[in-house]
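Appendix C: a fully annotated inverse folding record. The material below is reproduced so that readers can follow the format used throughout the book. The structure is listed first as tokens, followed by the designed sequence.
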């Protein structure tokens, strides 16, 4: 496979947007959007119980900080470094460079409060916490004369509220925009509590009766790229391009070979759709429910194993290490109309297939069932997992069923922009629902081109609609069909 080194390109129609092929490990956020909307921190709050005879007081505080430090070691997305002058500010992930750097990060991002000393009640804590995590853009974009006041970092923050006597505690995580609506916050909380309770319990001491509570409304920055705001000045644009030229390089493990004459402005949109019938869908959901995994994990594991299988067919080489695929949300809640949510038993997963950073040893030529088991378990502990699933039982639209030809994911335009976000909406005649779906368009100007494949899995009325949006300069319809067939085989196998 060829190494990919694609520089960021400036949009010809929106000069403030810089885009790349999404294969790099870094995430650069459009400064203009942050300037206009402010920096938003979704918040997750999780209750848990630890017997004070097991862990309490200073031991518990020390364990929390050690756990937060451990989470940081494997999660570059927890800290973002602020780069460039105020006139051309941009962000990128800050990877831990040393133990001292991790220690410093823990001190600035983790705060522990005690019942009766800092807060008199849980409600006081709940009310105070969001006000400390909401941050206006003026903090990060001061006037030139105040440049010394601008911080160097934007961090996820952990604040713990300890009520030691009964052993009832709260961990609150505020996730900056790069975690996309705080989806990763749930997994961070899970990892954190797992670390805190390590060697103390046979299982994680979650209070499952009180699930995580989102205390703030959701707002999502679409892949960090938006069309609002002014252009970066030439000097900052040049510096940005120089930086990206250094950091964006990746071996294309799961894609077809890059066309020799490929360039981002030649992206050609294609959509491939298949339907998994009700019987197969029921079998898939039942098999994974018995194993304790969600339908999200099912598709995560099956897609990853399918990519590996196809790659082995092409190269004839079976790797002794398996690179997990990192699934990044692309089209999230905002583009769904409320009517669409009235569908019966609706769930969806929106992912881009990107070679991930996690490695599983010894997966080689083992049985596919075991691969699925391993990967499903791995995603329980992976911050790369997209933890997003809706299961609904509203029967209002019992005959809701999109046509086979209806594209239900964004498609790529000839210049690499997502021209249209397709929204599904019930079609109403004379005030009566006839169960049809119509397509509405909404311009987003998000650039999406190259080797990535956007997979949208939508379940409606017991059937699964599996749709791939891809750039035909990289992939053929035959390869998409092969990918789907292998994914379905694995789902039914498990």
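Designed amino acids, in order:
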């Amino acid at each position: 496979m060829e190494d990919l080194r694609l520089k960021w390109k400036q949009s010809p129609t929106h000069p403030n947007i810089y885009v790349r092929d999404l294969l790099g490990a870094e995430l650069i956020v459009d400064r203009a959007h942050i300037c206009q909307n402010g920096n938003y921190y979704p918040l997750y709050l999780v209750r848990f119980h630890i017997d004070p005879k097991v862990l309490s007081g200073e031991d518990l505080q020390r364990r929390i900080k050690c756990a937060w430090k451990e989470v940081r070691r494997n999660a570059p997305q927890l800290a973002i470094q602020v780069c460039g002058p105020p006139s051309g500010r941009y962000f990128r992930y800050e990877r831990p460079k040393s133990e001292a750097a991790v220690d410093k990060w823990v001190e600035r991002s983790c705060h522990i409060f005690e019942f009766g000393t800092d807060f008199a009640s849980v409600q006081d804590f709940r009310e105070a916490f969001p006000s400390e995590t909401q941050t206006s853009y003026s903090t990060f974009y001061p006037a030139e004369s105040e440049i010394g006041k601008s911080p160097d970092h934007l961090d996820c923050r952990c604040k713990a509220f300890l009520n030691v006597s009964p052993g009832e505690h709260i961990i609150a995580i505020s996730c900056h925009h790069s975690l996309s609506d705080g989806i990763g916050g749930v997994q961070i909380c899970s990892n954190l509590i797992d670390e805190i309770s390590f060697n103390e319990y046979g299982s994680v001491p979650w209070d499952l009766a009180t699930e995580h509570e989102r205390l703030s409304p959701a707002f999502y920055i679409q892949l960090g790229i938006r069309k609002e705001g002014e252009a970066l000045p030439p000097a900052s644009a040049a510096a940005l391009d120089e930086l990206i030229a250094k950091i964006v390089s990746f071996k294309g493990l799961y894609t077809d070979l890059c066309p020799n004459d490929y360039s981002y402005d030649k992206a050609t949109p294609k959509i491939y759709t298949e339907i998994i019938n009700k019987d197969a869908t029921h079998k898939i959901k039942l098999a994974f429910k018995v194993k304790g995994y969600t339908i999200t994990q099912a598709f995560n594991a099956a897609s990853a194993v399918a990519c590996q299988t196809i790659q082995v067919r092409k190269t004839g080489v079976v790797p002794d290490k398996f690179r997990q695929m990192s699934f990044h949300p692309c089209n999230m809640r905002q583009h769904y109309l409320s009517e669409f949510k009235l569908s019966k038993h609706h769930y969806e997963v929106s992912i881009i297939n990107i070679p991930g950073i996690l490695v599983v040893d010894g997966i080689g030529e083992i049985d596919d069932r075991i691969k699925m088991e391993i990967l499903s378990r791995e995603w329980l502990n992976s911050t790369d997992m997209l933890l997003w699933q809706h299961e609904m039982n509203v029967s209002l639209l019992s005959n809701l069923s999109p046509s086979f030809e209806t594209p239900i994911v964004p498609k790529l335009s000839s210049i690499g922009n997502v021209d249209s976000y397709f929204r599904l909406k019930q079609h109403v005649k004379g005030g009566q629902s006839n169960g049809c779906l119509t397509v509405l368009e909404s311009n987003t100007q998000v650039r999406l081109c190259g080797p990535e494949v956007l997979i949208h899995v939508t379940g409606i009325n017991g059937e699964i609609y599996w749709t791939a949006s891809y750039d035909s300069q990289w992939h053929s319809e035959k390869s998409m069909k092969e990918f789907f067939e292998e994914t379905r085989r694995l789902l039914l196998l498990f």
